[in-house]
Amino acid sequence: MILTDQEVERYARQVVMPEIGEVGQKKLLDAKVLILGAGGLGAPVIAGLAGAGVGHLTVIDDDEVELTNLNRQIIHSMDRLAMNKAESAALFSRSLNPDIQVHIKTIRFSEKNADTLVGSHDLVVDCTDNDETRYLVNRKCYQHKAPLIFAGAVRTDGQITCFVPDAEESPCLRCIFPQTELDYDQAPSCSIAGVLGSTTLIMGALQTAEAIKLLTQTGTALIGRLLLYDGLSARFTEISVSADPACPVCGKG
Ligand SMILES: [Zn+2]
Questions:
Q1: pLDDT tens track for 149-167
Q2: What is the distance between the alpha carbons of residues 110 and 116, in angstroms, rounded to a whole number?
Q3: Which of 15, 19, 88, 184 gives 218 a disulfide partner, CB atoms 3.0 to 4.6 angstroms apart?
Q4: CATH assignment of 13-240, given 3.30.420.10, 3.40.50.720, 3.10.105.10, 1.10.10.10?
Q5: pTM above 0.70, yes or no
Q6: Phi, psi dihedral angles at 182 (to 5 degrees)
Q7: How far is the CA of 129 from the centre of ligand 1 (A)?
């Protein structure tokens, strides 16, 4: 027996799947996942991974829950307004699944803590809306050979892909978005452009699926493929993306 009776029952609907099984569930229970941000994308990712029994979650967010978050950040609630989002996420996760460990950091992900955080986890999910953080975590994940699941969402549009340093064909964030630091503020933020809760829920659910696949080594991960979601027309489009030999982060040329 790999799992306890309680684990077999709690995770029955996924353990019964041949793609997961007890072996896959044990991999999830042993996994350490770092989630950057407990906002729009973080909410479904945290709920999805906690529910699936990913055994060790670390959530980092220095932001507080605000009323304007609650159209989409459904792990938070009215009684937790002004609470730190990582703290609120931990309360949600422990209530959903007390059998997993949830660690929180109520600080900003930065050069100071990035190596320790990324280096002590098996996989990182980027749920931030800050380009500076995105480029930082991309660089650190490449250095520590940690898979990074990237997604973005604004209005009714989303995008997602996985960067896996150990995969030969995998680009990194910098390969496909080769901006310089001066371009950080080009993309419209959700506070200005708006965002539907359905968009972040869908993109966060896709990130959760990629995380479970990578951790259990099942299926085909979104590597070298950028998946675009157009919520208004309900269409997905896939773009091939490749590593840039001249990339300053991962380039081998
Ligand atoms: Zn690169």
A1: 999 999 999 999 999 999 9
A2: 11
A3: 19
A4: 3.40.50.720
A5: yes
A6: -70, -20
A7: 20
**Could you give the dihedral angle defined by the CA atoms of residues 168, 170, 173 and 176, in that order, rounded to the nearest 10 degrees?**
110
Among the listed residues 162, 172, 175, 190, the single catalytic one is 190
pLDDT band at 184 (very low <50, low <70, confident <90, very high): very low
Is residue 190 annotated as part of the catalytic site, yes or no?
yes
C-beta neighbour count of 253 within 10 angstroms: 7
Domain ranges of the chain: 13-240
> In sequence order, what are the beta bridge partners of 157?
154, 230
Return the closest-CA partner of residue 51 out of 30, 29, 66, 71.
29
Residues across the chain: 253
Supply the DSSP string of 87-135, one letter for each residue.
HHHHHHHHHH-TTSEEEEE-S---HHHHHHHHHT-SEEEE----HHHHH
Distance 236 CA to ligand 1 centre (A): 24
CB 207 within 8 Å of CB 52: no
pLDDT at res. 187: 63
Q: Encoding tokens for residue 150?
A: 């990237």
Distances (CA, A) of 98 to 11, 110, 147, 208: 13, 29, 26, 19
**What separation in Å is there between the alpha carbon of 74 and the centre of ligand 1?**
34
